[in-house]
Amino acid sequence: MTYYQLNILIMKNKKRLLVAVLVLAGLLCLFLISTIFTSVKKNHISVVDRGLVYASVDASGVVEPENEVLMLSPVSSIIKEIRKEPGTRVQKGDVLIELDDETTRAEIELITDQLEVKCNSLERSKFDAQMTRIDLDYNIEVKKLRITSIKTQLADEEQLLSVGGISSAKIDETKQNLVLAEKDLAIAQKKNSIRLNQLKTEESGLNLQIEIQKKQLADKIALLDQLKIKAPSDGIVMSVAGKKGEKVGADKMLVTLSDLTTFKIRGLIEEKNSEFVKTGNPVLIVADNTELKGIVGNVTPSVAENKIQFNVHLEENSNQRLIPNQTVRLKVLKTMRENVLRVKSANKFKENSEQLVYVIESGEKVSRTVNFGIKGIGYLEVISGLNEGEQVVLSDVPFSWVSKPKK
Predict the structure, then answer these.
(1) pLDDT in tens, 138-178
(2) Where are the domains of the chain?
(3) Closest by Cα among 289, 276, 284 to 314
(4) Which class does domain 71-96+230-256 fall in?
(5) Residues 335, 406: contact at Cβ < 8 Å?
(6) For residue 286, what are the β-bridge partners?
(7) Over the range 146-177, which residues count as b (16 or more CB within 10 Å of their CB) and which as e?
């Protein structure tokens, strides 16, 4: 092959390569144009739906347990051991702190001994009462027999008097003895009644003392278990007061435990936006790419670092997306419309206006007059002119809008 023929062959190959490159470039351009057109078309069409339209100001928040349990020392004691440190997650029934129980055990032993002595005294009192009743009954029987004997003697003397065998003075003496014997019986019966009541009162007193000490003993035994400070529910130990070996007084706060069953939000907002933070105002909480509803609770009136602190109470305060100490975004609502027709917000659509827009009907753009309401985050309220499910062109409008007074 000559040098000239070689050059001709090289030039033909270059032309083929150039054609191939141009064809590939054209196909690539067509693909990109098609993709961009599809994307633009998709992004510039909004389907009318029904939902929430709102305008808000941003705030930040931290997820906190809604309920805190303060655990107090049941008695004056010494911290024997701290089982769970702050920040530890615990389950219901876990022992958090052990208090010294030597004093309580000594008190239980003392009360037990005293109770045994009281029970012995009660038994002895019962035996003494039985013996006293026997003696009193015997004394009454003796007096009754004496009265019976005197009456018999008086009857015999009255018969002798009728035959002249005895003087009337003797009968008078016997009658006097009978009266004295009857009075003696009556006095003895009264004394016996008083004595029996005394015995009954003494027995009741001992029974009462025994019941009181039984209750004291039961309380001390129950206190032994209370000296082990246990978690009343699942949660996180927020703080522990005191150290091992330190003396603590009765009713002193020992542990703060956060209940993990429900949550609230501690929010912070710029002072300039404080007018929107009022108790009862709605708030949206963005947690794990999900919006949760809530309302403003207590608002702290003081300002720190140009920010106001407030609490948010959630409708779903046990939502699984909520995690303690999680930082969340808050949207404090300024205006809100619920369950209204809406379209995606576009720069050419203005709030509180009557405006011509393009609606897709049978694949064609058709102009239509629409009344818009408030403009919120991502959506614009539709008051009239559109129906749910219709498609609206966002990228083009027939001509300008007419403003309406704000509602």
Answers:
(1) 888 888 888 888 888 888 878 887 777 777 888 888 888 88
(2) 71-96+230-256, 103-226
(3) 284
(4) mainly beta
(5) no
(6) 291, 329
(7) bbeebeeebeebeeeeeeeebeeeebeebeeb
